[in-house]
Structures are given as C-alpha cells and as structure tokens.
Design goal:
alpha/beta; Alpha/beta hydrolase
Length: 321
C-alpha cells in the first residue's frame, strides 16, 4: 500500500505525492518523471524496489506541477528552475534525515541538476546516489529527432513555434480526445525498436493528463538548460547514466557528456531502445537503480559531510567571484 497526500507549495500549487515503504528505511529514493508524463511511468521500478524485502527503501514519487494529478501552474513558473525548488520542498517535507537517492527520467534528470545548482550544500549533505535516465545537461544541443540535419532544423523550428502557441492555451487538456490519432507519432518519437503495448498506453495516458500550458511552457527552459559545470562540481556521488541508442530526444551524446562530467559514473547504452527506457528496459533500469541504492546504503555521514564542506567552499568562492 502507498500513502498519498497533497503538498501545497509557496505559490499555491499543489503536488500529488505518493510514498511507499517504511518511514525508517535506511535509504529514501525519489523518482522524478519526464516532461508531459507523470509518476506512473516509474511503476515498474517501484515494484522492483518494493520487492527487495527488508532492504527496500522508502520511495517518494510525485506528479510535477501541471502534470498528472498535481495542480496547474502559472506560465511564468513553468521552468526547470522552479522544478528544482519544488524538489527541494518535497525532500524537506517527506525525505527524513537519512541518505537520499535521486532518479530522474528526461525532465526529471534535468530537475535534479537544477536542485544541485540551486542548493549545492543541501544537495551534498543529503544525496548519496544518482540515476540519470534518458536525459541531458545541454538542452537541445544534441537533439536531432533521429533525422538528417536539415529536417531536424525544420522540426525544431516547428516544435518551438507550436510550443509557444500551446504555452498560452491555458490549463486545459483537449488533446485527450486526439490521443488515438497521435499514437503513431508518440510511438515513433518516444520508443525504440520493440515495446509493449501496455508501456505505450501508460505513456499516452500520462500525456493526456498534461495541460497545454505545460506542454508548451516548459519547452523554452528545457531547450536552454546548460548544467555540465554543475555536474562537474558534484564530486564522487555514486551515479549511473542510462540511454537508448534509438533515443530521438536525448540521444547517446547527451548521456556521454553527463558521464564525462561526473567522475566515476557508469554509462550504459541500450541497443534498440528509445526515450522511454524506464518502460522499454524496465528490468535493467530497476537493477541499475537497486545497485545505486545499495551503494548509497553503504555511504557514511562523514562522506556526505566532506562533500558538503567542499560544496560550501565552492559556493562561497562562486559568490565572491
């Protein structure tokens, strides 16, 4: 069974939060979903972690503002920076005092980077493990949609124009009725060579719950983010980076640059897999996450204090500069 609650943020937006596992678990895992999706896309990993028996962590997952069952957001708050602030509040309210593992898919991974950038000392004190799945630290730098350069440029221009129109369309969801017609496009954009129909259905239902304002509003922030420098300052946090070689949104170069920025990070590229890696290769993603949780459980408070001390010094240097 899970515990569900509503967290009201400072600007009045409510987040739908779901928590699994014992409150006194050794490690807390926070799962962050992607753009236009919701917490249900992590259901395979939740099941796998809950199957660890006495070693199972506490699991926190929530719908990002404007997504799933969470409340709508103002257009000005549809930014990755705001999502980093939201994550900080979720951790303070639900994550207890022990080590935390953050796992982010797509926009969820970018949210983790914003949290690390905005709250470097807090991040170092709390976070003992990271899993980045199908994400990027370089905006749309490497996004070619699997197309030739000229076609990719045209598609990006059309996407950017469409996003601008959708961003001003309000907090409604008329595209729900169009989902059957959008199925082939979503399948092509988000999945690789093989997929289960149930995975596509979960994805389509998630997209149907996302407001037009969020579908369009987050596009600019996502495209502009540059956080490799932030990752390079994180030090020796146990981390893994996963990507499919058929990912049309965050292709392998995105994952490679993240792995290069994080010392000692393990990079895994899955042949034939697309952007929805947590559904397409759910067993492998779950195993990687369980491995990070195990490493986080063996971390010591002293290690996190050392990282926090380095983060504090780096933060003071940045402020002085």
């Amino acid at each position: 069974m899970s515990e569900r609650s509503e967290l009201t943020l400072a600007d009045g937006v409510t987040l739908h939060v779901e928590v699994f596992g014992p409150a006194d678990a050794e490690v807390t895992v926070v799962l962050l979903h992607g753009w236009c999706l919701d917490r249900r896309t992590w259901h395979q990993q939740i099941a796998a972690l809950r199957g660890l028996g006495v070693r199972q962590p506490r699991i926190i997952t929530y719908d990002t503002r404007g997504h799933g069952r969470s409340g709508s957001t103002r257009l000005g708050s549809a930014t990755l920076g705001q999502l980093g602030d939201d994550l900080a509040e979720v951790l303070r309210r639900y994550a207890g005092n022990g080590p935390v593992v953050l796992a982010g898919h797509s926009m969820g991974g970018m949210t983790i980077m914003e949290y690390a950038d905005h709250y470097p000392v807090e991040f170092a004190e709390r976070v003992a493990g990271l899993l980045f799945v199908s994400t990027t630290a370089e905006g749309h730098t490497h996004t070619k949609y699997g197309l030739p350069p000229r076609l990719a440029t045209l598609m990006r221009a059309g996407e950017t124009l469409g996003a601008g129109l959708l961003a001003h369309s309000g907090a409604w969801r008329p595209h729900r009725a169009l989902l059957p017609a959008l199925r082939p496009a979503l399948r092509w954009l988000l999945f690789g060579d093989e997929y289960e129909d149930a995975a596509l259905q979960v994805t389509m239902k998630s997209v149907g719950r996302t407001t037009l304002r969020c579908i369009g509003g987050f596009r600019s922030s996502i495209g502009d983010q540059q956080r490799l420098d932030t990752l390079a300052r994180l030090g020796d946090v146990p981390a893994a980076v996963l990507v499919g070689d058929r990912d049309r949104l965050t292709p392998p170069p995105c994952a490679q640059s993240i792995a290069e920025a994080l010392p000692g990070t393990e990079l895994t590229v899955f042949p034939g897999a697309g952007h929805m890696l947590i559904l397409e290769r759910h067993a492998e993603v779950s195993a990687a996450l369980a491995g990070i949780v195990e490493r986080a459980a063996s971390s010591t408070p002293e290690e996190r204090r050392r990282r926090a001390k380095r983060a504090r010094k780096a933060n003071q240097y940045d402020q002085a500069a």
